[in-house]
Amino acid sequence: MDAIFDIPVIGLIIQFVVYVIAQLPVLAPTIMAAATPIALGALCGFMNERSGVVNIGIEGMMLTAAFVAWWTASLAGQLVPDLSLGIMGIKLPLLIGLAAAILAAMAVSAVHAWLSISVRADQIISGTIINIFAVGITGYLNLLVSPHSPPSAGQFQALRLPQFVVDIPVLGFLLKSFIGVGPIALIMLISVIVLQVLLFRSRWGLRTRAVGEHPKAAETVGIDVIRLRYRNVILGGIFAGLGGAYLIIEFGSAFQGEMTAGRGFIALAALIFGRWTPIGALGAAILFTASIGLERSIRFAAPEGPLGQFLTSIPLQFYSALPYLITIIVLAGVVGRSMAPASVGRPYERESKAA
Amino acid sequence: MSERPARSLLLRVRDVAQLPAIAIALALVFGALLMILSSALLGGFDPTLPLTAYQALAVGAFGSGNALVNTLVNATPLILAGLAVGIGFKGGLFNIGAQGQFLVGALSASTAAIAMNHQPALLAIPVSLLAGMAGGLAWGFIPGFLKGFTGAHEVVTTIMLNFVAIHLVSYVIGGPLRGTGPEVTFGRTDAIVAASLPDIIGRNGHLGLLLAAVAVPLAWWLLFRSTVGFEIRTVGASPDAARYAGMHPRWITILTMSICGLLAGLAGAGEILGEVGYMPASYGTTVGFDAIAVALLGRAHPVGILFAGLLFGAMQAGAGLMQVQAGIPAQMVSVLQAVILFFLAAELIVRRVLRVRTAGTGVSDELQTVSRTYGEQVSR
Amino acid sequence: MRGITKRYPGVLANDGIDLDVREGEIHALLGENGAGKSTLMNILYGLAVPDAGQILLDGQPVEIGSPHDAIRRGISMVHQHFMLVPVLSVAENILLGEEPMAGPVFVDRSASNRRIRELGERFGWEIDPDKPVGSLSVGWQQRVEILKALYRNARVLVLDEPTAVLTPQETKEIFSVLRKLRGEGYAIIFISHKLYEVLEVADRITVIRRGKVVGSRIPAETNEDDLAELMVGREVELTVDRGVSHPARPMLSVTALKVRDDRGHEVVHDVSFEVRAGEIFGIAGVAGNGQDELVEAVVGMRHATKGKVQLDGVDTTSASPRHLHDLGLAFVPGDRHRFGVVLSFPVSDNLVLNDYYHPPYAHGLLRDDEAIDAYAEEAITKYDIRTPSAQVPCGTLSGGNQQKVVVAREFEGELKLLVLDQPTRGLDVGSIEFIHRQAIARRDSGVAILLVSAELDEVLELSDRIGVMFRGKVVAVLDGRTADREDVGLLMATGGRDSGVQPQTLEEVS
Q: In terms of CB atoms within 10 Å, which of A262, A282, B209, B285 comes out highest?
């Protein structure tokens, strides 16, 4: 083995691959945990952009949802009984928090839909408004309520797989990484698969693609473009809501101002990198967060020899910046081309102006 | 559009200021309602809370000579970064990256300033300012170049570059440039001495105020009196027509983004050299994002941006007193900004309800260019 | 349709229009661009809401508030601009909105493909339902549009200028399809501004002018002159007198030029031709046969991959638009809104759009607004541009006046070559006449003119010589005065019998 590692450059690369594979069991949970909210945000963006609406307000939607999840779950923990389902730590106060977060994100999405579709305001500005407003209102309310807020209502737990399943080579590891997660992450996985199938096989998917590409053509065959866009944008809010709630009641933090820390923007990048498909977006989210996992693993268990020296000589900030750099490179077309839905960003005017 | 007055100045002012004024008024009403509702959380329902709060806000912004200078100091980076966003709008570019350009400008200015800490101020100040401009320019050039030559949309690339800038600053200031002096208790540089901008008015009215004062007429001249500005505006309104007319949209796009970056970088340099006095490794500022609100409220016109910057600067200057006297968190200012933008964006509705007939946000064609290129990217 | 009235800001698009269409008839709606035909049909199809009037179907008044209502009542429409989603397949485009379902969620693909094949067979068309529509030729896309309408079990079929982009042969084929459908009892509304087409295919003709019905005719009882007078409201000369040309030295010579399109496909193959000073060289061809790319290469907006372009002896292959402008090339672009004018800029700025950078309009970096305004006033008078002032945004002008702004800008000055790409698309007869006369005047002053138009009639009317483009090649050069409409059409459709190229025509397939 050492002989192979001694080959210049290539040896280093091989050693790197071996290192990553060795670290994978440790890294996988971190990566999945970090990828889940990003994939959920990307699904929100997917619902918007596939039907022709740009959404750069995912960040704000998730932040709002996170705040609402935290506050309502905590309040519910005081007010309602701790009815528990017995698995994955599912109990009533958390479910109330989750539902409230989803409703809040849907409400914000409805505002985005109204501005983008009915008012025909610029959709990028609408997203900007949502982001600024979310930072302001959550920060404002957080300062008001945090001095006398009740304690956290706890968290969801990861699904425990039977030991014999985990022991299956490779498959067991994959199942543990993907299925051995909390309920919101499971919902994310199911949603990714369902939406991918629906997009290309279902009537909804066909109509959504048509509306995102050529709304006028869709209108002329009797599809209500406005209604479909409204529905998709508001339903997209569900995923931003799940993403925000995830940070509080599954990832397990208390609310802090601006705690989404750019996840909504990485989600947008993942959507683009994943070519506007759910599975692609999930893959991109995992790839992006892999660099975060790598940073952690290098910090705590750097490999030995020249590879270790090389990896630790790179500033840790480089790993944090990597997802953004990758996105820029991808967008610049060095790695591949992606296609945005053709009408994305353009408001649709129903009545033809042609005289 | 050409800027020659067709009617009296007064009518024109009413024309352009009416909608923004309505939006500001509506936002203040919204803010008041929010305060009244949330007063329940503060321990007691209090319908007069908005009066107390807005009064404190006004006193904090305009109540004394110091307050006025504070307003100007807060407005300075907003005006510069607002121009960085506004000129982008005129060129059909949505520069969400003013934040990153601001940070990199601050970073390079402080790097130069620290290196020149033992040089005479007359040399250190201009070099540090130039370094800030160069840093911002570079950070604007990248998305400009990517847009011009690969079609990568600036909305996405500038957002990404904002995050890259945060990590870049964190690395440079936390590592190679971390200060060694006794005052350094967290990730930051040593104090900037020689390149520190002198105060020219009041207790803290530093030289940077002049920079904004000069940048506004310069930007106006560039956009409306020069041929380069005509090219920028043509590319903004219709890149295809610009190409047809023999202009070079790619290079104009790069130039526009570079100018934007330069201005945002200058804003960052001014803040570090004039206000903060050192560069922190994690610089918690939102100037680059507030600048979007400033540019939109100012209809992407330099004069409008001047007034919008002063307004938001005043709100920031007064926020502290509002928090102390009325217990309203300073985040209320962000809420007000967002709501102002909301009513501007919903101008169609505002007009219909209030029967306003004056000009709109003034950048609708350019914004169409922004959206169109988003859908068109990579399909080339 | 009874008393249909529709107002748009500043225009009365439809003014109390009555129209009735019977089963088993082809009813032609004839009118100029902007006469209100499309508005009327958009109202029938639920895309626009009338301010007054009502629609009766089988004698019953009906409300048609959306295309959905229209389709439900058996009205289908083939739009002037294809309403097809390029990235979706033929099948997806056809069944969109009326999807056969397998269960509540999923589309039944095999059933839909079967139905589409069956529909195609009715006309002898072999359809591949899985092909993306964006990869089809214009003629095939038109067929998909018709299938789309029939798939919806329409009884009333509206076709809005369906022949605008087709060759004469393809047009004939569409006509035979229409006759077949008439035989099956469809009520067909056929919209056109081409007189001879209307005379050929229609059972009845209704003429609209400025939003009003000005007459109804039966083809047997009328002729082109009569219809033209009805349509325009005055006696018109159907053809401009192009006079005699005096061609001199070659001004533009294109040699073995190869050009690629945006997707990297070579769409102009080894094209060579010359345009001499004092002649109009017209290029005829079905849209999408490389004309756009050829023009863009000549005017400097696209790089040639091989070959040579010379302007008055100077090599200008892949020269920049600015350089060509300085050398004396002027260009009236086909897509006026995209290239020709900046709608939000004042008329004055648009008049100097490509001269803004040099004296007298600018000195160094500084614009000279006074000089620009002075020139604008002059041009507005000379070219009869109807505008309240030079300072109003160009977008507030009518289409004809916007095109006059472009013409004023491009036709002025010392010119060597004038490239006209679809110079009259979408304009009213008055503006068309004006622009045609100006073009001939410029020719007679010794300018070489390259005219490209999808309107074969325009090419035939103006050109001294005609080059026919087919699949990226100039397959023939004909004398403009003796060229026969049918012959040119056949060349456009097949590239000529002995060219060795497989012709793709409707006859071939049926």
A: A282
- Rounded Cα distance between A109 and A65, Å, is 11
Instruction: Give per-residue pLDDT as tens, B133-190.
Output: 999 999 999 999 999 888 888 888 998 999 999 999 999 998 888 988 888 888 899 9
Other C-beta atoms lying within 10 Å of the C-beta of residue A120: 15
DSSP string spanning A201-249?
A: HBHHHHHHHHHHH-HHHHHHTT--HHHHHHHHHHHHHHHHHHHHHHHHH
Residue with tokens 């800030």: B132
Any chains having at least 3 CB pairs less than 8 A from chain C are: A, B
CA dihedral for C242, C244, C246, C250, sign (positive or negative)? positive
Can you list the residues of chain C whose pLDDT is less than 50?
A: 498-510
- E-assigned strands of C225-352? 250-260, 266-276, 280-284, 304-311, 314-315, 329-332
Total number of residues shown for chain C: 510
Q: What is the DSSP letter of C156?
A: E
How many of the other CB atoms lie within 10 Å of CB of B66? 14
Cross-strand partners of C467: C283, C477
**DSSP for residue C89:** B
- Partners of B205 in the β-ladder: B201
Instruction: Report how far apart the first and last C-alpha atoms of chain B are (Å, whole number).
Output: 30
Asked if B42 lies within 8 A of A265 by C-beta distance, the reply is no
ipTM, two decimals = 0.87
d(CA A255, CA A139): 10
Q: How far C245 CA lies from chain B's nearest CA (Å)?
A: 30
How many angstroms separate the Cα of A14 from the Cα of each of A4, A10, A26, A27, A136? 8, 6, 20, 19, 48
Instruction: List pLDDT tens digits, range B42-95.
Output: 677 888 899 999 999 999 999 999 999 999 999 999 999 999 999 999 999 989
Q: What is the pLDDT confidence band of residue A339, given thresholds at 50, 70 and 90?
A: low
Instruction: Please judge whether C339 and B6 are an interchain contact, meaning their C-beta atoms are less than 8 angstroms apart.
Output: no
Is residue B52 classed as helix, strand or coil in its secondary structure?
helix
| DSSP structure class, residue C31 | E
User: Cα separation of B177 and B170, whole Å?
Assistant: 10
Can you tell me the distance from the alpha carbon of B305 to that of B316, in angstroms, rounded to the nearest whole number? 16
Burial C3-40 (b: 16+ CB within 10 A, else e): ebbbeeeeebbbbebebebeeeebbbbbbbbbbbbbbb
Distance CA B90, CA B47 (A): 43
A96: helix, strand or coil: helix
Which letter, b or e, does each residue of C483-506 get, where b requires 16 or more Cβ atoms within 10 Å of its Cβ? beeeebbbbbbbbbeeeeeeebbb
Which residues, including other chains, have CB under 8 Å from residue C134's CB and lie 6 or more apart? C86, C87
Give dist(CA B99, CA B264) in Å, integer. Answer: 8
Give the C-alpha separation, C358 to C342, whole Å. 20
Query: Chain C neighbours among B 148-187 (CB < 8 Å)?
Result: none
**CB-based contact (8 Å) between A132 and chain B?**
yes
Asked if A205 and A50 count as a contact pair (C-beta separation under 8 A), the reply is no
Residue with tokens 């209102």, as numbered in its chain:
A137
Please name the amino acid found at residue A129.
I
Pairing relation of β-strands C156-160 and C75-78? parallel
Cα–Cα distance for residue pair C455/C189, rounded to 1 Å: 22
Q: What is the pLDDT of residues A226-264, one digit of tens each?
A: 999 999 999 999 999 999 999 999 987 788 888 998 899
Name the A residues in 47-76 with CB < 8 Å from any B CB. Answer: 54, 56
Q: Give the closest of A141, A331, A342 to B156, CB-based.
A: A331
* CB–CB contact C66 A214 (8 Å): no
pLDDT for C454-492, tens place per residue?
Answer: 888 889 989 999 999 988 999 999 998 888 888 888 888
